[in-house]
Amino acid sequence: MNCATGYRALLLLTAMLLGMSTANAAKSAAEVEENVVLTARVKAALIADEVTKARQIHIETYSGIIQLSGFVATNDEKMRAEKLAASVPGVLEVRNALEIRQRLADEGAGKGDERDDSVRQVRHELQTAPAH
Question: Model pTM?
């Protein structure tokens, strides 16, 4: 192999690597956006529900897998949160790591106004999110 052929091969390899890197970056950005939208949809479903209310539920999303963590007042609320998350289109799996804390039930009285504000905020965010 002469010097010119080696140089061409190096340029070709560099171009291929740069192309793959750009494609991976675009794919990663799209995946991040999908995760954000899916997280918002699950959060909206939890907030709108009378049982879960999403008071202290944290949601993480990765490639269609939802991780629920945080605290709920009852086992019914924990199971309902998992069922609601699983019912959202695009969710492939739900991992439920919610913990039950009874004192949350006592603190929940009188939180309706805050819940309504949260529902309005999430609905607004969903309406303004870019469509796929």
Answer: 0.61
